Amino acid sequence: MTTLTAQHLAFGYRSQRPLFQELNLNLKSGQINCILGPNGVGKSTLLNCLTGVYQPTSGQVLLDDVDLHQIAAQKRAKKIAYVPQMSTDRTMVNFSLRDYVLLGRAPYLKLLTTPSAADYAKADAALAKLGIAELGDQPYPAVSGGQQQLASIARALLQEPALIIFDEPTSALDVANQVRVLHLIQQLATTGYGILLTTHDPNQALLLNAVVSTLDKAGHFQTGSTTEILTNETLSAVYQLPLRVVTIPETNQRTCVVDQQQIEN
User: Fold this and answer.
1) Structure confidence by residue, pLDDT tens digits, 71-88
2) Domain ABC transporter spans what residues (predicted)?
3) Is 259 a member of any domain?
4) Cα–Cα distance for residue pair 88/149, rounded to 1 Å
5) Which of 95, 134, 172, 264 lies at a CB distance of 3.0 to 4.6 Å from 86, suitable for a disulfide?
6) Residue 180's domain spans which residues?
7) Is 101 among the domain residues?
8) CA 193/CA 187 separation, integer angstroms
9) What is this structure's pTM?
10) pLDDT tens digits, 168-178
């Protein structure tokens, strides 16, 4: 069992108001935690704190009860994989998509060694799992942004971590690939991975039926089950928009919709 714990975490950029304070979070193997919130509230910043990219202003992040910043980067990479938000900039790395995915094996390779045949087989299997096996020989810059995002997830799988942290993993994907990735996340949790992801879409949290956290513009952070957190009142307050969670009779599926009547009134 691997655990990632944030205790009394705070972060602010220089003289600006802290994005969040006294934030507490716990992620463990086999669990999905979905963080919701509007643009600009600090979700990506929080993930950067949880992965050791940023040093928090106060509080600490523990990986298996050890301060994250006391653990060597290579050792951290064997425990935590981070899939950042897809950039709109088109990177010009000269890797094939397969070689880009193989970067996930870096924590296991000694200096100046090359990936083994087994590593290449793992890369091809990960590409196939994400539905892009036929693109393995394509140059990374030549494929679409959505395909690059799928490759980033495949690269994270090659790290063979205990925990995977996703920043808006479906942001560049079409509907079919969004469903593919959300189902993959469910499968990964079932097999023991701990998953933390951010999203703007409450319906993704409803579909995953995960532990849910919300972060609002005032820096308030709360965590609970979908029934506790995904309420009309909480979602409307977080997004500053009249939202309702309704049940579709035909499927008994809960979904979040905008209350157009309130907007029109």
Assistant:
1) 999 999 999 999 998 765
2) 4-242
3) no
4) 11
5) 172
6) 1-79+161-231
7) yes
8) 9
9) 0.93
10) 999 889 999 99
